Amino acid sequence: MGDNAPRRTVPIKLDVPDERRDSLHQTKDQFLQCANRTSEWAWRYDDYCITSKSKAENALYDDLREETDLTANLVQKGIRRAIEAVDSGVEKLTQGEKTSQPEFDSWSVVYDKRSATFNADHATLSTPNGRVTAEYVRSPADEREGTPFGRYYESDDWDASSATLQYDEQEDTFSLHVTLKNPDYKVDGTERQEVGSPDDHDKNGTVLGVDLNVTGAFAVTSTGAFIGSADYLTHKRNEYEQRRGRLQQTGTRSAHLTIKSIGSRFSDWSLDWLHNRANDLIEEAHDAGADGIIFENLDYIRENIANGSQFQQWAYKKFVELVEYKVESTPLFVDFVNPAYTSQRCSQCGFTHEDNRDDKRFACQDCGYEVNADYNGAKNIANRYCGYIHRGQKSRGGWATSQLALKSGTLNVNGDYTPAELLG
Predict the structure, then answer these.
(1) Spatial distance between the Cα atoms of 218 and 47, rounded to a whole number of angstroms
(2) Backbone torsions φ then ψ of 278, nearest 5 degrees
(3) pLDDT score recorded for residue 304
């Protein structure tokens, strides 16, 4: 099986025994320790950065094995994860973009077949305290056929090769995002295709459009998912600002120290909130069978919220950065479109007019289509990207055509609709 084989990532919720949950948290702490130590070593502002995985392993492996209780494979995974991020940062610098030393604080651990086993109904995961066996949380067999788990994980055509363990703090749940490859993938000259599939993966892909907002849902997708609350995020920020203002009026040294303390706590809370929302979006992309996640160009986002706070601008920028970072170890990609008129265009008929949108309500003045305005915008964002590909621009997935993911199926730029039950 070649490295260019088609891949799919399937999210699977885990039922972890209560007495073994702490072992997974310890694994995460030590895995991120390896990644951050490597990042500190490899990122050199006054010299050149180290982007060689072998050099990093030669320099750090023995020390990290002594400092942690991880298996050799997990230490190597932590080192390599950091080097990949450093390499990405160096590429940004060479393109004139601003970036900084990668820091790893989101909950994730990377496994492969040497540190985990992927069975039909459970997985076993290496930890500092031995292997943990976790059952899969699955729906009944007759309900799994159309799901990513049934279509890919339970299919003999796909082979589990690696996985990323994640934890949702709000839900207090663990999940395993398993990456699968197609073992029947064939290469014939420059042509690549999935055996048994009517569509060439390199000629057709599915994208998920995402509309980011200052009010209402923080992120809305072309599949109709409403992720997080921008109002709640703003409310928490306002609470912090009000408390800081009261303390500043006090003017004592104690008040100054308290301001620093609550500022640090709010910063940690907001970053954690954004991490969780990024995980929600990526899970939605996986569930939709999407290959790419499409945002508005960040420059336009900043223009659209120019009257908003610097915090809101930071939150959108950080959210997109987190999504980009989190998909690096998955087959997903992130790309951007010019969002001009996406809020005014009817995703049903294409008619564009400023009167189509009234706050969160979209009502087309031509065809009468009525829907949530942010959902309409998300579909337009995905459709615009499909239009780019249709006109010959190369996608980051390498396809010649693409389609947008909807909550009930997919739609291509020619208007051809495919119901969800006929996909895959």
Answers:
(1) 40
(2) -65, -40
(3) 54
